[in-house]
Specification:
The two termini are 28 Å apart. A hairpin with a 4-residue loop joins β1 and β2. The chain has one domain: SH3 type barrels (Roll), CATH 2.30.30. 33% of the residues lie in helices and 37% in strands. It is built from one helix and five strands. One of its GO terms (biological process) is protein maturation. GO terms for molecular function: carbon dioxide binding; iron ion binding.
Length: 84
């Protein structure tokens, strides 16, 4: 399964690449598909490519939901470990 996630642009390197913050990590991504990007913009990232700009509020909501899902998965794994 592939997942596209919101990321924040931290630095523009050139017309085709930028540095994005992904879960606290900085990674170079391809931004060739988008115009008029600025530092601080949020984009949807899929397999290393920024696909579209995203409103900051929507990006934050999505990131919060993903964090919640991660916590749920951790709790389920812990519960399965306790059942053994």
């Amino acid at each position: 399964m592939c997942l596209a996630i919101p990321v924040r642009i931290e630095e523009l390197l050139d017309e085709q690449s930028a540095v994005a913050c992904i879960g606290g990590l900085r990674k170079t991504i391809n931004v060739a598909l988008l115009d008029d990007l600025k530092v601080g913009d949020y984009v949807i990232l899929h397999v290393g490519f920024a696909l579209q700009k995203l409103d900051e509020a929507e990006a934050r909501r999505t990131l919060a939901l993903l964090a919640e899902l991660g916590q749920l998965a951790e709790a389920e794994q812990a519960a399965q470990g306790d059942a053994s």
